[in-house]
From TrEMBL, chain A:
The lineage of its organism: Eukaryota, Metazoa, Ecdysozoa, Arthropoda, Hexapoda. It catalyses: a ubiquinone + NADH + 5 H(+)(in) = a ubiquinol + NAD(+) + 4 H(+)(out). It is a multi-pass membrane protein. Residues 44-92 form the NADH-Ubiquinone oxidoreductase (complex I) chain 5 N-terminal domain. This is NADH-ubiquinone oxidoreductase chain 5. Residues 109-392 form the NADH:quinone oxidoreductase/Mrp antiporter transmembrane domain.
UniProtKB/TrEMBL annotation, chain B:
It comes from Clunio marinus. This is NADH-ubiquinone oxidoreductase chain 4. Its EC number is 7.1.1.2. It is a multi-pass membrane protein. The gene is ND4. Core subunit of the mitochondrial membrane respiratory chain NADH dehydrogenase (Complex I) that is believed to belong to the minimal assembly required for catalysis. Complex I functions in the transfer of electrons from NADH to the respiratory chain. The immediate electron acceptor for the enzyme is believed to be ubiquinone.
């Protein structure tokens, strides 16, 4: 006990937990009194452009901060045990804290320059966290993560340059007035691209499953509830630019496609963490597409509830991986219900919350979102995206449940599975408490009046029907011989296509870097060691050397020849002087 | 200023004292802190005496020169241990520092030229004297002749200005007479080579590879900045011409910066990679500077200071690996995270500084350069995106290949970082990350 209190994890768990409570109560106060605090710190003022560090404290940023601190405190508490035998636990904790710091900076600064501190920091720290287990897989995944995030940073940097048109980077002051301006549209495109990289939307989505090479507590904090929601959060702040424009439609389409892609691929995946990552991706797509319809408060609500149950899902997965001797393959699991009853029930709670089971956290946000989408005016494709993906979510959750909990035990017979590990169980307990009550609490807190949604009976139960059908599908998928060895080869190409995420990982690794590397090598050979030398140092050297060889020829010969050349030269000069004087 | 010049002059005899290595370094520290008191944030030339005086532009670069010089002494302790002509080494560093201070503080163009050129000599001796390989002779020639070839025309131009205008004082420079393209080219080309611009950068990687750590540090830290400093000083002469003709050099440097970033991705030599990355960074600096906008000029200065600290730190940290493993190759410098975990942190700081991560000065410089270049032409967005993205790519490549992966199996023995080394790195990174809190001093020099 004493040793526990002395450990760095416990210290920071207490600190972050207290901060979380503090921010939560501040949020209640701000919500109650309708307060917003701006704190501005001017770095540099030049030609009336000021580079300012802005801190914005409103209920939104405080609530998000409180959730980030809550989840990270539990994650740090959890890693007392999960990372127990790690030699560099201090490094781990420092990295997680740096990550939380960057996230906090991102949340509270609505200024395009000062947000870079959080935005770049998230990318860099998540790189360090992904490569934490030093193996080839995490090495590659880290590079993919960092460089994809860097694309977003570059877009943000370019949009900073565009925003100089307005003389200030505190966009929150003028974004509403300037939303129809030409430059603001370009900025909107750039911001959208930046947000899409951070939130792993479709052309950039390959890094999120790859980033599962990180330690599981990190995945719980970084790649489910905070880092990936940074893009969504940025777009919540920029939401005005996305409304009623082509950009909004594009966002709707891309978000829907991401949602669909992730949902389908999760049904074909066998890596436990990757399934959860794909489920995160699908939820991110949901948030993005809803954002394009303008329900930014609702998106924020879903973001928070999703953070709660997704962190729980990852922590439960961590417990399972831990007791399965670091195996993540769900084909190795089975009948875990007998050996890990507590973790499995927590896992189930969060899975059901993810599916939108009534009165769990996900229900309040997801059901509201789906009913609002039924209520609002969009086309059939988006409709299919939304509801098909909802069904798929239930499907892969049920498939996962059946694979890991109910089928016969496929793991080695010599095992030591147990969840009497009270440190991990405690953090699971707190999070599952929040996953149960979080939705309703937030609902009562954030929405002062009920939304009026007026639907016919069939549409009202449509979501439930879809969920039920999805559950059935997941159940059958887990039992069907489709995945067994005999049949899987008959759909080989289809299977590979889905299992490799519609080939996005190939598109964002080898096909992106191939030409730069080839061109780089060509430049090295042909420019730096080729033409530049030819027109530069080496050729000049050769030129001078040849001249001096000619000179040497004279020096080495008889003096007469030298003198004769001298005489000839003088005659030559006199001749030209003569011609010159005539021409005058 | 004279007091500081005499300070250095009188440090030179001290070189020949027994065991003067750390003494000189400490005195340089002392001088640095004294010099910091002479900060005058007024936008004018101050501390005038005879032909010398400083404004904020020269002040920052002089401080940087002193700082880098003392860090050079700190990071080449191996020389002292091996008794490798220590006093001569310190003598050259002090000579170089003296000449650099004179270069940055004089405002007579001819004197500037004189010191600008003569600072090559101690650098050459540093490379020839303390380099590692026989190829250093060729590298020395490249260094000398690339610069000389481009700068003799500059001498002619200086005489021409004197002949036309009867003054070659920096603060009288104005764009008052019609000049032609040849004049413009001869005037700026010396600085473009020194910068170095793409296509005339060949001397830089060669010199860096062959130079000892001190030579690399001062090359990347200060000598490249001489070119930028010169351009910032002489551009009042050719403003109109520059607005017309600069597009040529901006294009070359932006495209070249992008190409050089690709080239960096194929390097396996750490020092070569860092050297090429400084060519790429100088490409952005040159591009921003030549747009002749306020943001560009100021950002150029900021990025020059930032790059001076950052790349000098990268060279010194690369040398720390070199001293342990005896190779600069990324195939041998692998998996250092397990051997030197704390050093790995510094690697990460420097690599992230190199890719302009906040809160480094690099970011401030890069933002303002992006502002100026994009406001100059929106087509340059393409190259800037390229540059910015690939700067991250090669910095991470450097970091991940040197720190991650399997250890090189032929290592016999290994020591973790010394306090001296961590101090060197700290003294690089500390101003780099903290000066942004008072960024007027390194930004608003104009």
């Amino acid at each position: 006990m004493i040793r526990l209190f002395k450990s760095i994890n416990f210290l920071y768990f207490m600190l972050l937990f207290m901060l979380s409570l503090l921010f939560f109560f501040c949020c209640l106060l701000f919500l109650f009194k309708d307060l917003i605090y701006f704190i501005e710190w001017e770095f540099l003022s030049f030609n009336s452009c000021a580079i300012i560090m802005t801190f914005l404290f409103d209920w939104m940023s405080l609530l998000f901060l409180s959730f980030v601190m809550f989840i990270s405190s539990l994650v740090i508490f959890y890693s007392i045990n999960y990372m127990k035998s790690d030699l560099f636990i201090n490094r781990f904790i420092i990295l997680v804290l740096l990550f939380v710091f960057s996230m906090a900076m991102l949340i509270i600064s609505p200024n395009l320059i000062s947000i870079l501190l959080g935005w770049d920091g998230l990318g860099l720290v998540s790189y360090c966290l992904v490569i934490y287990f030093q193996n080839i897989k995490s090495f590659n995944a880290g590079m993919l993560t960092a460089l994809t995030n860097r694309v977003g940073d570059v877009f943000l940097l370019i949009s900073i340059a565009w925003m100089m048109n307005y003389g200030s980077w505190s966009f929150i002051f003028y974004i509403e007035i300037m939303k129809n301006d030409y430059s603001m549209k370009i900025i909107a495109v750039l911001i959208l691209m930046a947000a899409m990289t951070k939130s792993a939307q479709i052309p950039f989505s390959s890094w999120l499953p790859a980033a599962m090479a990180a330690p599981t507590p990190v995945s719980a904090l970084v790649h489910s509830s905070t880092l990936v929601t940074a893009g969504v959060y940025l777009l919540i702040r920029f939401n005005i630019l996305m409304l009623n424009s082509l950009l909004g439609s594009i966002l709707l389409f891309i978000g829907g496609l991401t949602m669909l892609m992730a949902g389908i691929c999760a049904n074909f995946e066998f890596d436990l963490k990757k399934i959860i990552a794909l489920s995160t991706l699908s939820q991110l797509g949901l948030m993005m597409s809803i954002l394009s319809l303008g329900f930014s408060k609702l998106v924020f609500f879903h973001l928070l509830t999703h953070a709660l149950f997704k962190a729980l899902l990852f922590l439960c997965a961590g417990t399972m991986i831990h007791s399965l001797n670091n195996s993540q393959d769900i084909r190795d699991m089975g009948s875990l219900i007998n050996t890990l009853p507590f973790s499995v029930s927590c896992f189930n709670i969060s899975n059901l919350a993810l599916c939108g089971f009534p009165f769990l956290a996900g229900f309040y946000s997801k059901d509201l979102i789906l009913e609002l989408s039924l209520y609002s005016n969009f086309n059939l494709i988006s409709f299919i995206f939304f509801f098909f993906s909802t069904g798929l979510t239930v499907s892969y959750s049920f498939r996962l449940t059946y694979y890991s909990f109910f089928m016969s035990l496929n793991f080695k017979s010599l095992n030591n599975m147990m969840d009497e590990n009270w440190i991990m169980s405690k953090s699971l307990f707190f999070l599952s408490l929040m996953a149960m009550i979080g939705g309703s609490v937030l609902n009562w807190m954030l929405f002062d009046s009920n939304m009026l949604i007026y639907l016919p009976f069939f549409l009202k139960v449509f979501t439930l029907i879809i969920c039920f059908m999805g559950g059935m599908m997941g159940y059958f998928l887990s039992f069907s011989s489709f995945f067994s060895i005999n049949k899987s080869f008959s759909f080989y190409s289809f299977f590979i296509f889905q299992n490799s995420m519609w080939f996005f990982p190939f598109m964002s690794t080898i096909s992106v870097i191939y030409w730069p590397l080839v061109v780089g090598q060509g430049l090295m050979k042909n420019f730096d060691q080729g033409w530049s030398e030819f027109f530069g140092g080496q050729n000049l050297n050769k030129f001078l050397k040849n001249f001096s060889i000619i000179n040497q020829f004279f020096f080495l010969n008889n003096l007469k020849i030298y003198l004769m050349f001298f005489v000839f030269w003088v005659i030559f000069l006199v001749f030209f002087l003569f011609i010159y004087s005539i021409s005058l | 200023m004279l007091k500081f010049l005499f300070f250095i002059l009188f440090l030179i005899p001290m070189v020949f004292l027994y065991n003067s290595f750390w003494l000189v370094q400490n005195f340089l520290f002392f001088m640095f802190f004294l010099m910091m008191l002479f900060l005058n944030y007024s936008g004018y030339f101050v501390n005038l005496s005879l032909l010398f005086g400083i404004d904020l532009l020269s002040f920052g670069l002089i401080l940087l020169s002193v700082w880098i010089s003392l860090l050079m002494i700190m990071s080449s302790e191996l020389l002292k241990k091996n008794k490798n002509f220590v006093s001569l080494f310190i003598f050259f560093i002090l000579m170089l520092l003296l000449l650099l201070m004179l270069t940055f503080s004089c405002f007579n163009f001819f004197l500037f030229y004189l010191f600008f050129e003569s600072s090559l000599i101690p650098t050459l001796f540093l490379i020839l004297g303390w380099g590692y390989q026989p190829e250093r002779i060729q590298a020395g020639f490249y260094l000398l002749f690339y610069t000389l070839l481009a700068s003799f025309p500059l001498l002619m131009v200086i005489f021409f200005i004197m002949f036309k205008y009867n003054s070659i004082m920096f603060f009288f420079f104005m764009d008052f007479f019609n000049l032609n393209f040849l004049f413009y080219l001869m005037l700026i080309f010396a600085f473009l080579v020194k910068m170095p611009m793409f296509l005339v950068h060949l001397w830089l990687p060669k010199a860096h590879v062959e130079a000892p750590v001190a030579g690399s540090m001062i090359l990347a830290g200060i000598l490249l900045k001489l070119g930028g400093y010169g351009l910032l000083r002489i551009f009042p002469l050719v403003l109109n011409l520059g607005v017309k003709l600069n597009f040529f050099f901006i294009s070359i440097s932006l495209i070249g910066g992008g190409l050089i970033s690709l080239l960096c991705l194929r390097q396996v030599d750490m020092k070569l990679l860092i050297a090429y990355s400084s060519v790429a960074h100088m490409g952005i600096v040159l591009g921003g500077l030549l747009t002749l906008t306020s943001w560009g000029l100021m950002g150029a200065y900021t990025l020059m200071l930032a790059h001076g600290l950052c790349s000098s730190g990268l060279f010194s940290i690369a040398n720390m690996s070199y001293e342990r493993l005896g190779s600069r190759s990324l195939f041998i410098n692998k998996g250092l995270l397990n051997m030197m975990p704390s050093m790995s942190m510094w690697w990460f700081f420097f690599c992230s500084g190199n890719m302009a991560a906040p809160p480094t000065l690099n970011l401030l410089g890069e933002i303002s350069l992006l502002n100026s270049i994009i406001s100059w032409s929106i087509f340059s967005i393409m190259f800037l995106t390229f540059l910015s993205f690939f700067s991250a790519a090669y910095s991470l490549y450097l970091y991940s290949f040197s720190q991650q992966g399997k250890m090189f199996s032929a290592i016999f023995s290994f020591s973790a970082g010394f306090v001296r080394e961590y101090l060197v790195l700290f003294l690089h990174i500390f101003p780099l990350n903290l000066l942004i809190l008072k960024s007027e001093l390194i930004f608003l020099w104009l």
